[in-house]
Design a protein that fits this description.
- By secondary structure, this protein is mainly α.
- The protein contains 13 helices and no strands.
- It is globular, with a radius of gyration of 20 Å.
- The relative contact order is 0.15.
């Protein structure tokens, strides 16, 4: 056993040593380009409720929130709270409006994620009818009962808004340019996520189909949502290795691809996010959140 483990370790190092630097750099570029799209989507939504926040400040808050997501248990448990507080303080926006702008982001994001999920399910089944119906009903229910959903969300965030602020939040649904733009930008983000995975696999000389990469992307998302460890460490890696191995990749290759993907989406993003946090006043905001 020890010999086989050492042999596997040597094989991983050999595979990682053959990685195409060009594809790796492109994968990193795609990751941070998606961060810019995140910020642009958020700016669009904030504009829909009459708030203008500098684009750079939005980018900083998102980068810092990625660091917080990576070091706190459960996906987005710390990051979303941090960026709500960041924009509320630096953009002088009521917490309720900031919180609902983030909630609205997530609602719009469910549409492309749901489509990706269906595409992934088509790999296993040609008739994912029940999942499709349930997903459509869920999205429709939120949309029809938007005002009730807003009130429930405000209770979850333990915040209150004035009548005028509530009207702004409810009116978001009627801003068709914001809604359509947000859905298109959300779709672009997930397309870039699949593209990043494609570039990482190409760095090893692999040519996986788009349907497989969509399944891997969805697996990555679901594993992050259910993981209890900070940043999903251990759980996401194990799940991705298992998913890639299921699609026929040798174990050493599956591990190597997972390590490279996590280097881009976890290690590098944690370092960059920490730098932004400590150089842009994020520590004071986080301390204020933790104080009674």
């Amino acid at each position: 056993m020890p010999g086989s483990v050492l042999g596997d370790g040597h094989e991983y190092l050999t595979l990682l040593g053959r990685v195409s630097v060009l594809y790796l750099l492109l994968a990193i570029f795609v990751y941070y380009f998606s961060v810019l799209i995140y910020a642009f989507r958020w700016k669009l939504i904030l504009g829909g409720i009459g708030k203008d926040v500098p684009f750079l400040e939005l980018v900083k808050s998102i980068l810092a929130s990625i660091f917080m997501n990576n070091v706190t248990p459960m996906s987005r448990s710390g990051g979303e709270v941090l960026r709500i507080a960041w924009i509320s303080r630096k953009g002088k926006i009521p917490v309720g409006l900031s919180a609902m702008s983030v909630v609205y982001e997530r609602i719009l994001e469910t549409i492309p994620v749901f489509v990706l999920f269906l595409v992934g399910m088509l790999y296993f089944s040609s008739i994912p009818g029940l999942l499709f119906v349930l997903g459509v009903l869920g999205i429709a229910l939120v949309w029809i009962r938007w005002e009730d959903f807003v009130r429930i969300s405000l209770r979850v965030f333990r915040t209150s808004v004035s009548y005028e602020e509530m009207e702004r939040i409810v009116s978001l649904k009627r801003c068709h340019n914001v809604t359509l733009g947000g859905i298109l930008l959300s779709s672009a983000i997930w397309i870039l996520d699949v593209l990043r995975l494609k570039l990482i696999t190409l760095a090893f000389g692999l040519h996986l189909s788009i349907s497989i990469l969509v399944v891997v992307s969805i697996a990555n998302l679901l594993l992050g949502l259910v993981a209890l460890t900070p940043g999903g460490v251990g759980i996401i890696e194990g799940g991705l290795v298992g998913t890639l191995a299921y699609f026929g990749l040798p174990l050493a290759m599956a591990v190597s691809v997972t390590l490279l993907e996590r280097f881009v989406s976890y290690v590098l993003s944690t370092v960059v996010g920490f730098f932004v946090l400590v150089t842009s006043g994020g520590r004071e905001i986080w301390r204020a959140l933790k104080s009674p």
